[in-house]
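User: Hi! I'm working on a homework problem where we have to compare a predicted structure to a textbook description. Could you give me the structure for the chain below?
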Amino acid sequence: MENPSEDTPHSWETLPSWLLTQTAHHTHRLVADGFSSVGARGYHYRLLATLEAFGPASQTALGRGSGIHVSDMVATVNELADRGLVERAPDPSDRRRNIISLTAAGKRRLRQLEKRLAETQEELLVPLSPEERQRLTELLSKLLDHHNRRTGAS
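Assistant: Happy to help. Predicted structure tokens:
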């Protein structure tokens, strides 16, 4: 087999699915590394942000709101509770269930994570103009919305 020219992309390298997958890999790494650099994980951010947006909730409701699978929710809540970022209290209407609340320290931590995430977004999108960033976000949202409706996901 001859050495293909490094300047000529393989046919799959111009496919939107390939480009999205490769970009997703870079995005995942950048976000994970960004959160890791401040001692956090993406689940921490998602859970804290969900609590801020919707208020105290059961772990089941938080899982639905944050997209964190129930099998990961307990560990995430435990990690955040151990750091004093969330509090667990029995649900007055069902003592078998816990209600999770955001603490003041959790709100401060959320602001730190939002700042780090903004820096990561900037690093990811640096080659794009503000208009291109807006258009990319619109197009990705349109694709995701379409496929979520088809599969019943949210």
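For your comparison, note the following. The chain has a mean pLDDT of 92. The helical segments are 16-36, 42-54, 59-66, 70-82, 104-125, 130-151. Good luck with the assignment!
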